[in-house]
Amino acid sequence: MCPPLLSETLDIKCTLYGKYADCSNLSMPDTIATPSCKPTYTSPNEKEELYCRSNGTWNKQLYRCNPSISCILPTVEGVVYSYDDSNETLSHGTLINHQLTIIENCEVGYHKAYPNGFGICQDNGKWLSNSDKLCLKMCPPLESDSLNIKCSHNGKYANCSNLSIPNTIATPSCKPTYTAPNGQDETPLELLCQPNGTWNKYLYSCIPYCGRVYIINQVLIVNGEKAPIGSAPWNVGIYQLNKKNSNYDLICGGSIITPNLVVSAAHCFWQKGMLSRRISINDGLYKISVGKYDRNITVIDNDFTKIFNVVMIHLNEDYYGPTGFHAQDIAIIVLQSRISFSNGVSPVCVDWNGKYNVVNGDQGKIVGWGKTEKGISSPILLEASLPYIDHSTCRDMYTNGFELFVTVDKFCAGSALVSGQGVSKGDSGAGLCFVHSNSYYLTGIVSTKDPNTTNSIAAFTEVKHHISWIRGLYNKYN
């Protein structure tokens, strides 16, 4: 009989005439032994069979397996591995047999520094790689409403609104209709995308120029005069859905104070018996237009014309309509999306700190789509200049009962000697603006007018009387 077959590196299966046999004991002639390397061992002679001869010897010596050589897939940030002939991703820590080639790729958010990355498991159990660092973490996109951002990489144009490659340089600057805050001069700044995927500095913010007019070489007829496009870029038209014909009708005007807030009059939205001064809009009932000169909402006047949805309207909590003599006649409209400012669309200034005063006779600018001298609604935006009349002077002008509508938060503007050039129905909510330090400031909001007179005098809600209320909503939404 043949001696036992024993090995530390082999698994040995034996059969005799097709049936199991135990090779760890003496084996009978014609026993066949099939050795194979144990896991983590290897041999070039693997799978060679032995058989027990009739003279009691095996026909071959057992071969020996050597410990197999393998490499561990390392954990490298941003790198994913797969076999050369497969797209299946291999986990970090996987054992790879020697001489096998592994393909390296990069995760989303990482830049591939070389076209092809690969690694070969060498006989010493170490990796041979064609690159030191294949995947570089990319920097997040740079986006800003108030900045123009120019980017370059190795002197060539790069798009920073996408992920950026390390060593990308970003150069921000205020957009033409924006300026550095607090009157500072804009300081040149460069941002560098670092190898760790972060920019070395933070983007700053610019604030929009307010109350600036940008006269463009296109004009519209206004009250017999010509009002250039851009002469009141803060003005908006407010439209309400006419459910009878599904059209949007112009109902009021308003003034932009931030990218998402418009100031108008409360009476534009007032309904008798309403329980809340906070109106949530989710059915497209109201829309506002910017850069608009034609009354018709479907007419796109110029490149600046845009239509925005309204999501919320806040009426002053103490507004009670005509029964309250239109006191506190002010509203803030919240837009669904933010306005992108340009030469043709920009905010009016707000005197947050009560720095400026207006005296009787000062001329203020107002625009709107109210009725013309012929008593018909204007198809185009009209512009007028109205002299200021303080609260006391205006109230003393009336003895017919209209003085009750000149409430404590009102002043007037217009002239008793001029008819047809003041505000009228359709101008409600529009802003009367006065120039201070070369910029237009929102001073009043068209509220009401004595229906028994034909002069141009109207009562305006005084903005400074409501500055705390406006500031509260400004802080809430900005």
UniProtKB/TrEMBL annotation:
Q: What biological process terms from GO does the record include?
A: proteolysis
Q: Which residues form a coiled coil?
A: none
Q: Which PROSITE patterns match?
A: TRYPSIN_DOM, TRYPSIN_HIS
Keyword terms of this UniProt record:
Disulfide bond
InterPro entries assigned to the protein according to its UniProt record, in alphabetical order: Peptidase_S1_PA, Peptidase_S1_PA_chymotrypsin, Peptidase_S1A, Ser/Thr_Proteases_Immune/Dev, Trypsin_dom, TRYPSIN_HIS
| Highest taxon above the source species | Eukaryota
Q: Which SMART domains match?
A: Tryp_SPc (SM00020)
Question: Is DNA damage given among the entry's keywords?
Answer: no
GO MF entries: serine-type endopeptidase activity
Q: Which residues form the Peptidase S1 domain?
A: 221-475
One Pfam assignment: Trypsin
Similarity remark: Belongs to the peptidase S1 family. CLIP subfamily.
Q: What is this protein called?
A: Peptidase S1 domain-containing protein
What does the organism's lineage look like at the top?
Eukaryota, Metazoa, Ecdysozoa, Arthropoda, Hexapoda
